[in-house]
Amino acid sequence: MLIWNIRGIAGRASIRRLKKLLRLHSVTFLVIIEPMVDAGQLDDFTSRFGFHLGVCNSSNKIWVMWRSGFAVNVLVNNDQLIHMQVCHDSWNFVAHGSFVYDKCSRVERRALWSALGLISEDMGTKPWFVGGDFNVVAAADEYAGQAAQDLTAMAEFAECISACGLKEIPFSGSRYTWTGIRQGRRIWKRLDRLLMNLEWQRRFSGSVVKHLNRATSDHSPQLLQLSPGLPTGPKSFCFQDMWLNHHDFLMVVRQCWDQPTDGYGMFHFFLKLKRLKQALRTWNQDVFGNIFEKVSKAEEEVRLKELQLEVTDSDEARVQWSQAQAALLKHLTDEETFWKQKARVKWLREGDANTRYFHSYLLDKRARLSITRICNLEGEVVESADDIGTAAVAFFQSLLAEVPPINNTAICRLLEAIPPLVTPD
Q1: Which class for 23: exposed (0-12), middle (13-18), buried (19 or more C-beta within 10 A)?
Q2: Rounded distance, CA 135 to CA 155, Å?
């Protein structure tokens, strides 16, 4: 996906630059901000750039185009925002995207903050991202120059991001997406950005934004690359804290440990641990299984039992409803324990319902620790998962294959310091 405040789409240089970016990055979804031509020309430009369909917002400041394979349904359309439901043939879910071109006035921008707040209330667990030109920075370090900044506008923008449950999609390239001359001095700002909610981060944990070079516009094109995340190897065995809450856990351990084993000493101990690990794997799969699916099924069961209780207010219906609630609470506790252990957050009080926080914390940590680009031995920057793996292996192979030079002088000095124990006699 490419989002770009092009500052006029009709210019020959802009068309040439845009076509090159579309071809170079195989763009299938395009958002143009400030096309500066009549809305009646949208279909012509959509066809000209090789897209299937296109739509614009009510002020004709935002154009959205997509290739075949996408199904798009516009839900909100106003002078600063166009919000749509987006689905692709390769997805088994529906995502939501909000594309913005914010007003330059702090007061006028408040209408956009309110609109985003209303949209966020309806998102829930739906994947959602927001992108475009916000015409305001969210923090002081997103600005370079000597002109005074509107601190109130910055605070309102940051508050909107937080209230909507949004966070930055990681980016590479220049920190500033816009540059211009004000009062005879050049200033730099990060006015363009892409934000995501937790569900988008979960679906596309490898999402990254590239700030491409500015050329025909004073704004950097924003290239969003979607990825489910970097490939991982086989999962290692991990002891789960939630096992300790199950009444059969100690019995499973005792029965496995008491079985006779060949060998002696540490080898005997190793065989017992290996057998116990396999026994716990099997027991975990049989007893706990997919805890997230169990939570969803338990919630649905509570809903059905509650409907049944409303129809037939009997003792049996009340018992079944209470049992369904108890099962849901148990599965929710298992889920929270799982995420807390994965996040390795120790300072929150036991029993707090912080599942959403733990999940977000873990996804952020994974993003920080993941390697998305690396420099190989030839000095080239590679970004694909296969190339990164090849470069890492080649580096350590060259490191371990190197033969350190022999320092004869140092060896002679060392030998001289050793007193001779055998004499010529």
Answers
A1: exposed
A2: 14
- Give the three-class secondary structure for 390: helix
Torsions phi, psi for 73 (to 5 deg): -130, 115
* 227 vs 394: CA distance, rounded Å: 25
Cα distances (Å, whole numbers) of residue 245 to 240, 285, 330, 332, 337: 10, 16, 10, 13, 10
Biggest CA–CA distance in the chain, Å, is: 112
Strands 192-196 and 167-168: antiparallel
Q: Express each pLDDT in 323-368 by its tens digit.
A: 988 888 888 888 877 777 776 655 444 444 555 655 666 666 666 6
pLDDT in tens, 173-186: 889 999 998 888 88
Q: Which of 120, 160, 171, 119 minimizes the C-alpha distance to 3?
A: 171
Backbone region of residue 328 per phi and psi (left: phi > 0; alpha: psi in -120 to 50; beta: other values): alpha
Q: Please identify which residue in the block is written with the tokens 């914390």.
A: 361
Distance CA 198, CA 121 (A): 14
Question: Is there a contact between 55 and 82 (Cβ–Cβ < 8 Å)?
Answer: yes
Q: Domain 2-225 falls in which CATH fold?
A: Deoxyribonuclease I; Chain A (3.60.10)
Closest CA to 321 of 312, 15, 414: 312
Cβ neighbours of 402 (radius 10 Å): 8
Which of these, 171, 96, 101, 94, lies nearest to 129 by C-alpha position?
A: 96
Write out the two tokens for 98.
């909000």
